[in-house]
Amino acid sequence: MAAGTLPLALTLELQCDLKYPQCSNCEAAGTECLSYDLGKQREIPRDYVESLEAQVERLKAEVQLLGSRPGAVPNNEPSSSEQASSATPHSDRETSSELYTSLALAVLDPSDEPRFIGTSSGVTLAKAILGSLECDMPASPSVRSSQEPNMNVLLPRSSPPLPSKESATYLIDVYFQCRTPHLPLMERADILTCVHNAYLAHDNEAATVAQRKGRDVFVTLMIFAISCCGLKGQVGRGASDRSESFFHSAVQCLDSTVGTAANDTKTLTDILLLAQYVSLSPSKGNLWTLSGLALRTCIELGFHWETNLALRVTKAQLNERRRLFWAAYYFDRLLVVTVGRPLGIEEQSLGAGYPEPPPAHPSPEERHAQCVANHIVRLARLEAETKHVLYRQQQTAAVAFPQPDYHTWMEDIKPRLEQWHADIPLTQEAHPASIYASSSWWGATYSHALLLLHRPTPRVPEPSPASLRICFEASAKLIECTQTLLREGHLDMIWVWAHRLFVAGLLLTYSVWNSNELRSSLASEKIVNVGQVCASSLAAVAERYPKAAGCRDAIESMVAATVRRLFAPQNRAPTWPVGADSGTHQPDGFWPPPQPDHPDDFMAGIYSLLPEDLWVVGQGACQGLGWPILPDDNDRTVPWRELDESSLQFGESMPDSG
Predict the structure, then answer these.
(1) How far, in whole angstroms, is CA 389 from its chain's centroid?
(2) What angle do CA 494, 495, 497 make, to 5 degrees?
(3) Which ranges carry the Xylanolytic transcriptional activator regulatory domain (predicted)?
């Protein structure tokens, strides 16, 4: 103890017996034996230097293990970028007709060689992923606790827990039963390999850090976590707790997984697994950040565009590339439509094909799941096209955005959307427990697409009577189907359905208040019943997703005002008075806007929908992508914001979404 004195011995007036690495008094008290270092001006463990030496040896062992992997590239071999640059002249000669090939592809190989993503190293990407997750990370071990007796770097037995192998088999089956609407990322054979390796490392007492917390363990735990999300509606709270436990254990493996993956495709798969889980448990992370990382990685790897050179890979590799890209695309479009985020990539920039079912004798359910995934992506592309034409605002004209022909486009998009609905894969071919076996899920999804097309938009602020009727019928259908999904316990992405219910309730009341034809042709009892079902369903959703409480309160206020107006003694369309500053009358059949009983509480509920964070559900929160906001709620004569017609053209280069 040359550096100082023992604080515990001084406090208790005990004499230090200089026993190493802990004196008898500190060992008996169960505290760490510290000494005061004059150079560092702080207390340090007595075995500080030896613990640092042990850490260095452990890191050397990990580096040696990573360097001995089969996929490692020797220093004397050309890197991926060098191979790509050397292949460019040859590829340009063979694809001279495709002048855009070199610009569309970020890399020209299937990314089988390991390389880091980012400006300097993989650490930046790992930190970005960890920063997008919301979970309590375990405390870092102390210096002394990391000291190990040999080069094998044995982990304590507190490594990530794994269920029994029988339970693991069941959870893998649940994952491929598609009880939640996630797109397939990996084939069953690949997942089984990861699970097998994870259990081997878990049962091996001499396993190293790279084995105990490697990518196989991470993938295994994430599959288990996603599967438990699909069991929440059937087994209740227990599945939710197990899902969080698997997720937190997987995050512990993330830091040693992202920067050391065998290739960039595996890193992309890891990001998408996290995005799948966060989409089902929004409180655990930021889906906007994860989907952005995934989509940018796909673009960097060239997965978004396929040329003759890019197609020179095996069929399995091509299917993997396509699966990963469309999964990243789906998350991006989900946020675009739901919370009004900007497009991560334009539709005109896409040229990737759709993946095919696994060739290695897949089960009928797995083959059906891949067909369903492709069908969902086609709908996402139709919705993205609708967003582009009806919701985008551009202030100046450009050659790439010529003047639109709105009516021609509407006549073209309607039959394509109807054809998509007619081509929905048979629900009988899906697994009985799959969400894709529910006709209510398909009905609600199609109804939401109709609402996106026919509701008030910056391009058409006042829909026609026919569009108002479609809005009412689609809203009623969506509300009915959502209620059925609630009863069956199949409501998966709760934040998405909270938004859809809220939009359906808004459009339901909007259609009734703005269409005299609807009020005269529909029974008042039906309107009231649908409105009350919407309010009660939102109340049930708010119990699981508290951020939807503002939506619930707003819908309840509007439904109550609609009921009072429907059953008023004189239920007729009033003559709209012309104010001192107004020179126009409101259209026939328009009711004055409902006045809430408590304006302050009502507006507070509306303001809670604004996008202060990711998980808001107000579609109109973002001007330019949602509904323009009138400056005065009581002045219906104020026109919608004027739009530049040049911004409404979708362009002739839009690929066919069918």
Answers:
(1) 24
(2) 65
(3) 287-361
Question: Which of 27, 35, 48 lies closest to 1, judged by CA?
Answer: 35
Neighbours of 266 (CB within 10 A): 20
Spatial distance between the Cα atoms of 216 and 235, rounded to a whole number of angstroms: 27
Q: What does the DSSP 8-state code read for residue 36?
A: E
d(CA 412, CA 53): 70
- Look up residue 533 and give its two tokens: 């079902």
Give the distance, in angstroms, between the CA of residue 345 and the centroid of all CA atoms in the same chain.
16
Q: What is the DSSP string of 305-326?
A: B--TTTT-S-HHHHHHHHHHHH
Averaged pLDDT in 10-residue chunks for the chain of 658 residues: 46 64 78 76 80 89 79 46 44 43 40 44 67 63 34 39 88 89 88 91 66 81 90 62 88 75 82 94 91 92 85 88 95 92 88 82 81 95 92 65 78 95 93 92 96 92 93 96 92 92 95 90 91 94 91 92 81 40 44 51 43 35 32 36 34 37
At 558 the pLDDT is: 92
pLDDT of residue 107: 44
User: How far is residue 580's CA from residue 586's CA, in Å, rounded to a whole number?
Assistant: 15
Residue with tokens 């759709």: 354
Separation between Cα atoms, residue 504 and residue 491, nearest integer Å = 16
Kindly tell me the burial class for residue 4, based on how many C-beta atoms sit within 10 Å of its own C-beta (0-12, 13-18, 19 or more). middle
Partners of 36 in the beta sheet? 43
Cα gap 151→565, rounded to integer Å: 79
pLDDT of res. 207 = 58
Helix axes 494-514, 524-544, angle to 10 degrees: 160
**340 burial level (CB within 10 Å; 0-12, 13-18, 19+):** buried
The 3-state secondary structure of 100-141, one letter per residue: CHHHHCCCCCCCCCCCCCCCCCCHHHHHHHHHCECCCCCCCC
Strand partners, 482: none
Name residue 401's beta-bridge partners: 398
What is the architecture of the domain spanning 7-67? Irregular (4.10)
- CA-to-CA dists, residue 397 to 392, 641, 646, angstroms: 13, 18, 5
Q: For residue 380, what pLDDT is reported? A: 96
Cα distance between residue 516 and residue 465, in whole Å: 9
Task: For residues 451 and 454, give the distance between their C-alpha atoms in angstroms, rounded to a whole number.
Answer: 5
This prediction has a pTM of 0.69
Across-strand partners of 239?
Answer: none
**3-class secondary structure, 42:** strand
Residues 6+ apart with CB under 8 A from 299: 106, 345
Q: Determine the Cα–Cα distance for residues 371 and 45; give it in Å rounded to an integer.
A: 60
**What are the distances in angstroms from CA 168 to CA 221, 270, 481?**
10, 19, 33
| Distances from the Cα of 210 to the Cα of 153, 159, 201, 260, 420, angstroms | 10, 12, 9, 10, 47
